[in-house]
Amino acid sequence: MKKRYIVDIGKRLQELRSILGIQQKDMARDIGINPGYLSDIENGKKTNPGFAFLHKISLHYRVSLDYLVHGIGDMFLPGSDREEQKIKNFQPVFNEIDDLVWLMKRSSYVKNTVMGFAVKFFIENEGLIKQEMMRYFEQEKDIADDLFKF
User: Fold this and answer.
1) 125/12 Cα distance (integer angstroms)
2) In whole angstroms, what is the distance from residue 47 CA to residue 102 CA?
3) What is the pLDDT of residue 29?
4) Cα 147 vs. chain centroid, distance in angstroms?
5) According to CATH, what is the number of the domain 3-90?
6) Could you tell me what percent of the chain has a pLDDT over 90?
7) What pLDDT, on a 0 to 100 scale, did the predictor assign at position 1?
8) Which residues make beta-bridge pairs with 76?
9) Do the Cβ atoms of 54 and 65 come closer than 8 Å?
10) What span, in angstroms and rounded, lies between the C-alpha atoms of 63 and 122?
């Protein structure tokens, strides 16, 4: 695993603890590890959290392994009462697009409002967006042409 993924896992662990309202020492105790080890993972200092470590977190807190390792999908497993806890502790801070998508999946009001703003933005800025997309595709085409030169 590359270090970037470990840093991302550490950030997701911090987010999980924040949502659950628990400290590092409590999570470490719950899953039977040294608090220093958890701290090192959260800070990206440990670059080899094993499957057993991630599996313990998944089982104890009903967290998706796909979410922990890759940041894919919902944090909590379906049917988990933790999902309700995430909603109760929701804070409208969007550090990543995934945070907004999570909220849009759970609130049709938010989804419809955001989509309305997006449509308006695209209509008002259609020319600029098309120019930017053309530059992007030209760059991609140039890269592809370079890769397939024989």
Assistant:
1) 35
2) 28
3) 92
4) 32
5) 1.10.260.40
6) 13
7) 43
8) 63
9) yes
10) 36
